[in-house]
TrEMBL record:
Its cofactor is pyridoxal 5'-phosphate. Residues 23-320 form the Tryptophan synthase beta chain-like PALP domain. This is PLP-dependent cysteine synthase family protein. The keyword Zinc does not apply. It holds the Pfam family PALP. SUPFAM superfamilies: Tryptophan synthase beta subunit-like PLP-dependent enzymes. It comes from the Bacteria. InterPro entries: Cys_Synth/Cystath_Beta-Synth, TrpB-like_PALP, TrpB-like_PALP_sf. Gene3D superfamilies: 3.40.50.1100. The lineage of its organism: Bacteria, Bacillati, Actinomycetota, Actinomycetes, Micrococcales. Keywords: Pyridoxal phosphate.
Amino acid sequence: MTINETATAPAEATASRPIARNITDLIGNTPLLDLDAFAQRRGAKASLIAKIEFFNPLSSVKDRIAWAIIREAEESGELRTGQRIVDITSGNTGVALAAIATSRGYPVKFYLGDNTSPDKRKLLETLGAELVTVPNSIFIDPEGLTKLVEQIEREHPEAYFTNQLGNPSNPTEHYRTTGPEIWRDTEGAVDVFVAGVGTGGTVSGAGRYLREQKPDVRIVVAEPGDASLPTEEQPYPAEIDGVHKVAELEDDQLPPNYDREIADEIISIEAEAAYAVARDVLRETGLFVGASAGATIGVALQLSQRDEFAGKTIVAIVPDSGERYLSAGVFG
Ligand code: PMP
């Protein structure tokens, strides 16, 4: 391990920050962290930067879209006082929705994949959400998903279905906030952007913004490797929580919020390799990232070793914290 010699003391309390009036005022403007020393020890020729989404108030990238969906549905009048909110979620969207919705007086009910980490489950229960478990394979099974959506609408005709997989407020919010933040904070230096696909909102929205600023920016999707494919013996294998396969899927198996045209490249990484990266990042830098960030940083590391990216700047999204995976076998 090396000590970062450029480390500085915290800034003195000179730059003032307004007192937030609502928790939602604290969403976004998450920090970037330079992981160059970590990457260089692994032969990187490019600069590697992490965008740390666990600085959001409910500690994940999903705060952005949960608030955007609720805000826009309230503004349009689709979501009314006291109405129940329902959605299908792998955890983080549920956590953000539950906290924001409950504090605004909406009860919440979520349909959760059966590979969701026990920590996220506990958290959702603590936040007052009602939970229904569904097979995780439903996320790549168009028929199963359609049936589930129909079931939800049948059982809860009165509810507001936030529909993170298809709600346009999701990619639009990443286009409005995540992409511009990366562009602003790297001062336009970003050459490569790496994200995983759950709903596809992050990569499609932020990716579209970055491509508009710099047409030759490379957008790369990190997807789970083949060990994450369901088999007969293991119908619901350990997957990289929150992130699904995309490359071999048909259009109707992909979430509507994933823009199939956005990725220049899709690179797979096995769950175990992603977990190892998350453990290394923690040990060597002190940054405690979650499972899907192990995948994005792992893929960013591979890219950073390529000659074509020598001297370039790679930004990897860190969707959530390792604290959401303490009982999930990621950190032992
Ligand atoms: N990582 C984690 C931990 C997530 O919860 C999600 C969302 N399910 C993602 C990555 C993927 O983000 P998106 O839905 O924007 O594609």
